[in-house]
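Predict structure. Input: Alpha/beta hydrolase, 242 residues.
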Amino acid sequence: MTNPSIYHRTILKKQIYSASLQTEREIWVYLPPGYNELLTYPVVYCQDGVEFLNYGRIATATNQLVLEEDMEPPIIVGVHVDLKNRTEEYSPDGERFSAYCRFWTEEMMPEIERSFPIRASAEERILAGDSLGATVSLHLALDHPHLFRKLISLSGAFLPPTRQRLTGESDLSGLDMYMLIGLQETEVKTQRGTFDFLEANRLAKELLTSKGANVYYEEDEGKHLWGFWQKKLPSALYHFLG
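Output follows.
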């Protein structure tokens, strides 16, 4: 019988003003079962925050893993996406990409880690993203290895600009990635055209491992949809926190 407490969610909401983006951005923060502000916790930072909460059901999955599978409880932070500017903020060649990354590392993350008992080390931070959300997360880890070393990639949009960046890296031995891609993701329609995400992930995985990154890589039956990612998200969380 399913434990009804897995459906209880403790979610706090914050508004953080970003000088880099010249706007406020909404953040939600999940506190795990048994949360105690006298303890410290690892943290999972999610791009597309509302989607991870509502479509990925990350709070319910985490509750279940903590309560029934003895997973280490994390604090989870979801950053609201500006849909009209998503590609410009998440894509490495986007006009707002640099500003978004500054918001992340210089404004949002310091504010969150001042406000909650989060372990402030790269080993205790996990970045999570789907599609272009995985792309910006990877670039954050590449640009700031002293801040981020662990990454959950759900069907990452690892297109030529990202693969070119990986080609130029010399040592990625500090990077630990969980990569998921669907076998049906060979014609993914985006704002910038239709791409073979399956092949893009295979190429990115080869580049990552050739540079020494530790990569857990999985291909499975699935399309570029939250219905696919939701099923796999518990395994991704447990990979780092189990």
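The domain at 4-241 is CATH 3.40.50.1820 (Rossmann fold).
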